[in-house]
Specification:
Helix content: 25-40%
CATH class: Alpha Beta
Radius of gyration: 18 Å
Structural class: alpha/beta
CATH topology: Rossmann fold
CATH architecture: 3-Layer(aba) Sandwich
Order of helices and strands: EEEHEEHEHHHEHEEE
Strand order of the largest sheet: 6-7-8-3-9-10
Number of strands: 10
Largest sheet: 6 strands, mixed
Number of helices: 6
Strand content: 25-35%
Amino acid sequence: MSSADPFPTDPVFHVRDLTKVYGDGSAEVRALDGVDLDCNRGEFVVVLGASGSGKSTLLNLLGGLDTPTTGVLHYHGWDLGGADESGLTRYRRDAVGFVFQFYNLIPSLTARENVALITEIAADPMTPEEALELVGLGARMDHFPAQLSGGEQQRVAIARAIAKRPSVLLCDEPTGALDVRTGITVLEAVERINRDLGTLTLVITHNAVMAGMADRVLTLSDGRITGETRNDVRLPARDLVW
């Protein structure tokens, strides 16, 4: 590994001919239809596609929220596709941070307490305070969700996701419920986690503007990867043109 490359190159995810089929007969839906993909530590990958393209299905499989119908799905060489529910539970708890469009914070808990829900069960967590500082909320730790803006609530959700020190951060339309200015602030938090912690980060979105901040951009259509491009230079979130 060269000094210019701070992250090892062996894949975090190794995916081959991955399919996910729902239903059968005339009701069969092939949500994923033969996806090949490798993802490495420290990468920032944006997955673009319209509604129904298979983006969320891919994220759910990578995150251990669902299992494939056929194909190879390995996480650091471990057969994630063939894991039992106990193994998937440990994987989700220890290795993956999720950020969704809606924040799913507990209203009766402060920002610090919402993050502590994760740090109390994780194997090697950072403190809630460290996680909230990373997303720029050091001064808002003891505020309740109702006292926070939408962007601040999403940043609490990001802090909660990364407090366990996951090796993978999966973001599903993380700015979908936010205005442009607030969305950029949230993307800056995601960008910082990827840069400072070396966390493999996948963002699925229908918003092509986000492509500029990625190392690699995948386009999904009808359950297949129909395009892949790499950016020689990643744009900071604040420089994206909306």
